[in-house]
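note to self: dont lose this again. the chain is below, predicted strucutre after it. 235 aa total, dont forget to put it in the shared folder this time
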Amino acid sequence: MSKDALEKVNKRLLQHFKETGVENAYYYAPVDDHYWQKTATSKRVAFCNLEPYTRGHGDVKQGYVLLDKETLYESWFYTRTSGKVIAMNYCLSKVLYDGEEISESDIRTIVLSRGHKEDELWEDFDYSLYFNFRHTCSKTVRADTAAIARLYNDPFYCQHYRDFVAAAEIDILIVGGKYGCNLLNKIYPDLHLQYKGKPAKYDGRIFVSMKHPSRISYADMVETIYDIADAVYKK
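---
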């Protein structure tokens, strides 16, 4: 798979939007081409949450919008969810590639003072991917799980998700929330991932379930990072 393959997957998604009357929606891809520059030892990490962030107004840019770096920054960088994701991605890289030790205090400092490390955090996130199960915004602040369930009752979206993960060549897929874990098991019936359990190796990838980023503790973030590192280096 490749960048071209991912573009083809997204073209099929946009066509499905048109055929089913979806007028305004996000679709996803890496925010920087550095993502595709994989080395022999690096891993492509992706974080998946339930739906695009909303303040309760169904707010989404008009038309079909590719989630780019500018939108991710302007809309979500300083929210609890994406802010913790970007900080966690940075700490995971430090553990996996630099051999550094990360403590609860370290990750708390990074999350709370990320405005002072913007360039470093974003540079690291250029090699990772952020996306959601849902493409449209909810009209409520809380996640609209009923709408997400209806979406994935359409077999197209289950297949699109699998095609997206394959085309993006994701090595480590981290999913937030219990509902997200259950939904992932619906998409991959043979996965059997346990909510907040140990990472599962399936189909050549590492699947990870953690508490939703907006609610996860710093201690749990550290534990998840080291669980991932163990799964990567475990023979």
